[in-house]
């Protein structure tokens, strides 16, 4: 496995399975009264967040703490970054403080790549612009594998996953297309044509514009958050029209195969891309995704920081 | 040579022995009083300095239509002095300095200042380009006539970096410059289609999550401008053509007999958008690097003459403007010191252009488009002795730290390229000897 986790494309099938299997093992700990492992004692993990994302930051923080790492949270607001410090200088500062791993969230695509060139420690991409969010894809894959009762060591072969919404601006979609296909799933993207990259035809997945046609052929439906500002930029005529054509409501949910699940990376726009009755239905895995996020991020930190090695 | 000395230096007499003019048979070039006295063979006249140029190719001094010298305003990136040193080392004897300085070169006063700085530096001629609109703001015409009549004799006008996107303003500019045989050099970029754009829109931009820069944003403006140029009977020069579609449109406009000329940069002849994969902003440029199919079309267009010339778009930036995230980094690449080498790699070593063709595309045609006084761009007895001696058999790895430019943002750093500029003469005076500033 690479030293960093920047793109889901960095992961071979074996790498991805190792992370999922490790997460499975670590998840069992979450049921114990004492959730902490001494694995990363003395190691420092910095959460470097240039974008507000409470849920992702807390998830990484919980993961690092359960492995006994020291955690430093560095939020760009009110910091030297707000005073105009460059990403490079921030990186050099963290380096000087002895960060073993830097978890970075940034609004610019490629920020994690740049950071990896400036620090010696491990870089984990927690979302860079419209590029990627590989740990989200890992936790989604982990959730799917569990829900479909696939045992440790197995991938997602043959499962049909439909990802719906603003693919153009979505780092979640990019990472999921790469990772889920690596694990053997058949991925279909469904979106208005304005919200698909022009060269999406070169991606390893199918593409369609008709959500209704895709629903009965989906084992998994993954809804993406749609931003209100996309409407202002004329990507679609109105929120209502978007919701009618690409939202998942009770009627559409009824057309899903019996075993199918509904996923959403959060935060949701209830009533826009997903109806409340769907979000709260038994098919919804949204809360489970959050819980699984901690286990998967523990596995990533454990494997990238050579947890086993540090323990000995 | 340090600044200010060249004007007083007597050119003297030089005998360049055994060079191959335009890649042809070896001959001796005798330079006397700044002029090519003869091309042939014969003994060195008494007192002549002899330069053994066996095996070297002699080209007329290169002319760059598109150079950012950054002075006044961004002397941390480049100055007229450092930029023209870089030009001389690249075999250039004339550069056209783009107008997007601070203050903008939109008045007779500013263009005259830049012209004088060039004369003082003395490494090559500096021909200022005037802004089309006041402050490059795209709202009203700058005093084009005053710039044309100033000692700088401005003939090329451009808002480069910004597109004159207003169709009426573009029409007026094209019409107005007819009075003094001017040309509008358009940076073709439809602004609405490129809001926040970062990289050629295609497979790479989609994969990397960078906002796409569609080819149509360039092509639509070029098509419109060709039609406007025909309508008002003026002259258009298209800056840094970067797409296959643009080449097609220009080929069509030329077939109509319209006065449209075009340039391509060395980097668009060699590099593609796949280099952005690591998000290193040294590959961030406007217009963006495109696909391999575009590169092939640009090379073909330059070879068949659809594209008239190579222009560097030398765009120096200080380190801190490139050592950032891709989105916030500055657009632009340096190019003066590598241009001829890249053209050899992309055009000559591929068999698309011979050395006479290189002389045509890098000297004769840009000189004509720039309306340069005097017969620049050729090698013949009686012409000013502005020329470059080039070793096409040399080969080494580009090291931007060794460049004379004040900036280091060369996308060719670490690449192995053929060729070496051995000497450059400006009207009989060497500006470069043995690959170093004379």
Key structural traits:
heterodimer; A: 312 residues; alpha/beta; four-stranded parallel sheet; B: alpha/beta; nine-stranded mixed sheet; globular; disordered N terminus
Overview of the structural elements:
- The complex is a heterodimer of chains A (312) and B (438).
- Helices cover 39% and strands 14% of the residues of chain A.
- With 312 residues, chain A is an alpha/beta fold.
- Chain A has a five-stranded parallel β-sheet with strand order 7-6-5-8-9, covered by helices on one side. A four-stranded parallel β-sheet of chain A has the order 2-1-3-4.
- In chain A, α5 (134-147) crosses α6 (171-182).
- The mean pLDDT of chain A is 93.
- By secondary structure, chain B is α/β, with parallel strands linked by helices.
- Chain B is built from eleven helices and 19 strands.
- Chain B has helices at residues 80-89, 108-121, 144-149, 167-176, 203-208, 216-232, 244-255, 266-270, 292-303, 339-348, 355-369, and strands at residues 13-21, 27-32, 35-40, 49-52, 57-60, 62-67, 92-97, 125-128, 156-157, 183-186, 199-200, 212-213, 236-238, 260-264, 309-310, 387-397, 416-426, 429-433, 436-437.
- In chain B, strands 1, 2, 3, 4, 5, 16, 17, 18 and 19 form a nine-stranded mixed β-sheet that branches.
- In chain B, α4 packs across α6 and α6 packs parallel to α7.
- The longest helix of chain B has 17 residues, at 216-232.
- The chains are: A alpha/beta (312), B alpha/beta (438).
- The A-B interface holds A 86-88, 106-111, 113-114, 128-132, 171, 174, 197-200, 202-203 and B 201-203, 205-212, 214, 278-279, 320, 323-328.
